[in-house]
């Protein structure tokens, strides 16, 4: 009888104290890593940020334009455009590949997800999977999207939330690098601070453990106005984690000079690593048949 009571007590303790894992993916459109380093950003500084690349592998079937449409679909499917088939920003396309929302929901129907897309085309490009998402928005402004995400984190107990924020990219297209671009980064840092405050509240009061991932879709040209081409600056992105990454993630040296696109692709993190990282953290087994183009960034 004593052994049975001990077993029951231990089981209850495990249930009570085991933290529930959650993921917040914050997508920041068009933020150049080198420009981020020039601005005082206390909330960005809470992350371990590593240099990465987008645009597929140069000269292979996976090569894709460094534009938002193909890049966000890559981030949310874990594969390059040779698989997902989205080749431009046009909303008259639908991803041929399943998204992270599909993998989460079909693996565990009890998990709840949300997609808050300030640039509405993201959800349109993933139209086939949107019926699986428990909550979604298309369009609006960054502050509005941030408020929605904060409310969802605080009140709804969702398991995976993707939020896309757009103002930095707008500043780049309108003004290039300079004072207004830097100001947009400062404002973005405030938005991230609100999101971190919300996840910290859940961690403390609801026995949760939030992995927060920062990612950008593309870099920018030398003056900061445009993107789309296969140049080092336009292919350079970043991935940030609020937790320690695995040996591959931690080995990336942001200060090492990149002399070629080939070096960028070999020595930094592929954009395709975001989806497997989310699935790994949520304890969702990654199937070979999904043919994801990268491995997780956490152990």
From TrEMBL:
Report the GO molecular function annotations.
hydrolase activity
Domain of life, per lineage: Bacteria
| Ranges in a coiled coil | none
Q: Which Gene3D superfamilies match?
A: Alkaline Phosphatase, subunit A
Entry protein name:
Alkaline phosphatase family protein
């Amino acid at each position: 009888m004593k052994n049975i009571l001990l077993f029951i007590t231990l089981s209850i303790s495990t249930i009570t104290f085991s933290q529930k894992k959650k993921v917040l993916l914050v997508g920041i459109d068009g933020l150049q890593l080198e420009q981020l380093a020039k601005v005082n950003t206390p909330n960005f500084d809470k992350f371990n940020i590593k240099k990465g690349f987008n645009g597929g592998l140069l000269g292979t079937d996976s090569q894709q334009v460094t534009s938002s449409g193909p890049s966000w679909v890559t981030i949310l499917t874990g594969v390059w455009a040779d698989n997902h088939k989205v080749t431009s920003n046009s909303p008259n396309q639908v991803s041929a590949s399943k998204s992270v929302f599909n993998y989460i929901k079909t693996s565990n129907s009890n998990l709840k997800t949300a997609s808050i897309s300030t640039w509405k085309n993201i959800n349109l490009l993933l139209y086939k999977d949107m019926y699986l998402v428990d909550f979604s928005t298309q369009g609006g402004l960054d502050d509005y999207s941030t408020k929605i995400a904060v409310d969802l984190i605080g009140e709804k107990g969702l398991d995976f939330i993707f939020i896309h924020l757009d103002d930095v990219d707008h500043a780049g297209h309108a003004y290039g690098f300079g004072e207004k671009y830097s100001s947009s980064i400062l404002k973005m840092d405030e938005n991230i601070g609100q999101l971190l405050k919300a996840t910290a509240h859940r961690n403390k009061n609801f026995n949760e453990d939030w992995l927060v991932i920062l990612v950008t879709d593309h870099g920018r040209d030398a003056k900061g106005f445009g993107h789309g081409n296969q140049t080092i600056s336009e292919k350079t992105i970043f991935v940030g984690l609020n937790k320690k990454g695995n040996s591959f993630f931690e080995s990336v040296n942001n200060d090492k000079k990149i002399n070629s696109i080939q070096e960028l692709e070999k020595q930094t993190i592929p954009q395709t690593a975001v989806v497997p990282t989310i699935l790994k953290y949520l304890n969702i087994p990654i199937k070979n048949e999904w043919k994801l183009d990268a491995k997780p960034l956490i152990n």
